[in-house]
Design goal:
Strand order of the largest sheet: 2-1-3-5-6-4
Organism: Flavobacterium quisquiliarum
Radius of gyration: 19 Å
Helix content: 25-40%
Mean pLDDT: 94
Number of helices: 8
Protein name: Shikimate dehydrogenase family protein
Pathway: Metabolic intermediate biosynthesis; chorismate biosynthesis; chorismate from D-erythrose 4-phosphate and phosphoenolpyruvate: step 4/7
Keywords: Amino-acid biosynthesis, Aromatic amino acid biosynthesis, Oxidoreductase
Order of helices and strands: EHEHEEHEEHEHEEHEEHEH
Strand content: 15-25%
Domain Shikimate dehydrogenase substrate binding N-terminal: 12-94
Distance between the termini: 21 Å
Low-confidence stretches: 1-5
Number of strands: 12
Length: 250
């Protein structure tokens, strides 16, 4: 029996994405004979304005994932957004509809929420989100759905955002979940880590890093040394990828 999902192209939109999780994941998925004929490739563009040309030159594309730094920048190029993508303000999945329109979705929030929930205990009441980019917006939305208040941390303090210099022992007493949404610590710069007073981590903290390569970043290693429960972004990526696959096929 010929599968209805044959001969379709998908890909990842981003910049400097040779390390891509998505390409490896979907390529492996498509080795299953049920998905034979599907393909997945990286679309590495130096700036978002090349997106229009990319779409024009690849009319047979059926879906895209979106990664750094285009989760927010791609939105003006889309015809419509899902309700949750609109609320989040970031897109990591694009569906090419039957009418030829481009619709943006966010599956990051789903992947993060599903991977964090099993770790939560009653004492995990508040979260610090390190970084303010597109990925952090999905994380914030997931925390809202979980009823967990959060504060953003950036290199510069702004309204509703604190800077790293303000983080101290009291901060760690008040915030039991620390989530790294920055690229700091990604391979090959694996010795780097967010500027935190790691001595204040305890066994009552969760240290969550959206980075998956390396599997244990310096941020996670230093947190674990103080007893924190640690989690990298691998499971989040699997959950969000499978959610994207469902969106492309619905």
């Amino acid at each position: 029996m010929v599968d209805i999902l044959l001969r379709r192209r998908f890909g990842l939109l981003g910049r400097n994405i040779s390390y891509s999780f998505s390409k490896g994941y979907f390529t492996e998925k498509f080795k299953n004979e049920v998905f034979a004929g599907n393909s997945y490739e990286n679309f590495d563009i130096s700036e978002i304005n090349y997106f229009t040309e990319l779409i024009k030159n690849n009319p047979d594309l059926k879906g895209l994932n979106v990664t750094i730094p285009y989760k927010e920048q791609v939105i003006p190029f889309l015809d419509k957004l899902s309700r949750k993508a609109t609320l989040i303000g970031a897109v990591n999945t694009i569906k090419f509809t039957k009418s030829g329109k481009l619709k943006g979705y966010n599956t990051d929030y789903y992947g993060f929420k599903k991977s964090l929930e099993p770790l939560l205990e009653p004492h995990h009441k508040k979260a610090l989100i390190l970084g303010t980019g597109g990925a952090s917006k999905g994380v914030a939305f997931a925390l809202d759905e979980l009823g967990i208040p959060y504060t953003f941390v950036s290199r510069e303090a702004k309204e509703n955002i604190i800077d790293y210099d303000l983080i101290n022992a009291t901060t760690f007493d008040n915030f039991q979940i620390i989530i790294n949404c920055t690229p700091v610590g990604t391979s090959p710069n694996i010795d780097a880590c967010p500027s935190l007073p790691y001595e204040f981590f305890t066994e009552k903290h969760i240290a969550y890093d959206l980075i998956y390569n390396p599997a244990e970043t310096t941020f996670l290693k230093l947190s674990k040394e103080k007893g924190a429960v640690i989690k990298n972004g691998h499971d989040m990526l699997i959950f969000q990828a499978e959610k994207a696959w469902k969106i492309w096929n619905k």
